[in-house]
Task: inverse folding
């Protein structure tokens, strides 16, 4: 398809105008918006809803055609470069649209002008009909189930929205635009891809023939302003007591494993726990798609790479873990361990790289250890199961389990410590558990919170040996 045809097809598409975000405050499960609507004169900066206006269709088509011609003359192929949209390109697109609207008799500042400017800018520089959803700070996830069905997650609840793509081709264009800007590819020969938007939001796309009813696109948004420990306490994800315990454990270089299901908030919690790492340490982060937002000064970030079109050049998490050991890290932070890299991580934790952090998919604290064992066996080193369990018992100090509850909230439900081996089994004890028996309020929201189990943490001795005193009264009326 020629550049003229591609731009003509793009300019012939319309989108729904977004409702203006209410207040723009961060809410649980809804990290912030992806862009700043105040930039470059965006009409959403007015702070009031812009109702849908339906100008004459022939006039609208003529305006689009005129914008199409002038953008081709002034910008040409630059509109389809793989890099991220820069401010100069956005400024010139907006100026072109404004000039064309003025010559067509559309008065600046009117509802019609604002609507047309928004629609055309979203189509040319953004992500078409889902662009308003990506800007909405209340939306934490966008799920496209084919060109005609789009769902979003707000405050932990999933809702269908009215926005649609024109057709499968329109959806494919948006997917291609996303993945090309981060150097990934997706086509019939490689129909699945994990990528990320420039702000770090996670993107997964699946194309036909794997997807039977049209291309599938899932975007999990992440905030440019990362959540802090105070935010998670305010949301009820953790309590001040648990936050103080985690702070002490990270500063004393205990190894922490964060477990949970998909969408339970593991990465957000990992980000917050990582913020407790002292600023003078050398950190290496390893991820499939870069999402962590560490604020320390000495951070080295590495990202895995899929194979190229010839099936070569793949760099796995395991490759990066092995390489990280040669880079003099104080700590290694892995976004998620899911294969034989688990064995390399356990080896690192047991050979002087204390204080490492990672996440794993699991249904509970005990299940997370079983998964680590299974993934270590995937390394094909023919180790006996007991040897792997001994590695786990020696490496992991604390397991934090997080879950997404029925009311849509994301809560830490268990804080458990590993206390050694008992025969053939890794022994662990719960220090805090979420009180599910507290029930729910009238709106269905859980009333429970994390409660101390009454057991004395054995790690208190380790903390004391490393010069960190944790007040025993932090856990309640401690009997020791």
Result:
């Amino acid at each position: 398809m020629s550049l003229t045809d591609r731009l003509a097809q793009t300019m012939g598409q319309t989108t729904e105008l977004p409702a203006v975000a209410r207040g723009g405050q961060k809410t649980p499960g809804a990290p912030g918006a992806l862009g700043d609507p105040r930039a470059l004169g965006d009409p959403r900066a007015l702070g009031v809803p812009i109702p849908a206006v339906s100008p004459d269709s022939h006039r609208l088509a003529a305006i689009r055609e005129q914008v199409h011609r002038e953008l081709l003359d002034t910008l040409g192929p630059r509109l389809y470069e793989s890099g991220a949209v820069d401010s100069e390109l956005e400024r010139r697109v907006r100026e072109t649209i404004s000039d064309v609207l003025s010559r067509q008799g559309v008065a600046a500042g009117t509802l019609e002008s604002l609507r047309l400017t928004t629609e055309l800018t979203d189509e040319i520089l953004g992500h078409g009909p889902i662009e308003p959803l990506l800007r909405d700070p209340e939306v934490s996830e966008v799920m496209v189930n084919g060109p005609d069905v789009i769902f979003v997650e707000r405050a932990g609840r999933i809702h269908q929205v009215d926005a649609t793509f024109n057709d499968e081709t329109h959806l494919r264009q948006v997917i291609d635009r996303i993945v090309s800007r981060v150097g990934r590819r997706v086509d019939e020969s490689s129909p699945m891809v994990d990528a990320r938007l420039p702000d770090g939001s996670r993107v997964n796309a699946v194309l036909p023939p794997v997807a039977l009813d049209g291309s599938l696109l899932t975007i999990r948004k992440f905030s440019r302003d990362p959540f802090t420990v105070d935010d998670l306490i305010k949301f009820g994800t953790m309590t001040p007591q648990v936050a103080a315990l985690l702070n002490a454990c990270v500063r004393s270089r205990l190894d922490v494993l964060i477990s949970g299901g998909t969408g339970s908030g593991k990465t957000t919690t990992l980000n917050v726990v990582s913020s407790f790492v002292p600023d003078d340490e050398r950190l290496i982060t390893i991820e499939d798609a870069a999402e962590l937002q560490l604020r320390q000064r000495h951070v080295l970030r590495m990202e895995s790479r899929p194979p190229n079109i010839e099936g070569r050049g793949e760099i796995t998490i395991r490759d990066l873990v092995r390489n990280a050991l040669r880079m003099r890290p104080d700590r290694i932070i892995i976004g998620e361990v899911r294969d034989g890299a688990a064995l390399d991580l356990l080896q690192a934790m047991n050979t002087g790289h204390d204080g490492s952090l990672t996440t794993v998919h699991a249904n509970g604290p005990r299940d997370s250890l079983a998964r680590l064992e299974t993934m270590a066996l995937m390394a094909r080193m023919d180790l006996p199961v007991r040897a792997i369990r001994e590695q786990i018992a020696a490496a992991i100090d604390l397991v934090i389990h997080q879950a997404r509850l029925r009311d849509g909230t994301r809560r830490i439900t268990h804080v458990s410590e590993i206390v050694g081996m008992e025969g053939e089994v890794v022994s662990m004890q719960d220090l805090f558990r979420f009180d599910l028996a507290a029930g729910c309020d009238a709106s269905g929201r859980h009333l429970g919170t994390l409660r101390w189990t009454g057991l004395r943490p054995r790690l208190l001795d380790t903390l004391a040996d490393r010069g960190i005193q944790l007040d025993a009264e932090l856990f309640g009326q401690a009997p020791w």
Notes: Residues 10-55 have pLDDT under 50 and may be disordered. Residues 57-74 form the longest helix (18 residues). The radius of gyration is 25 Å. The CA atoms of residues 43 and 118 lie 7 Å apart.
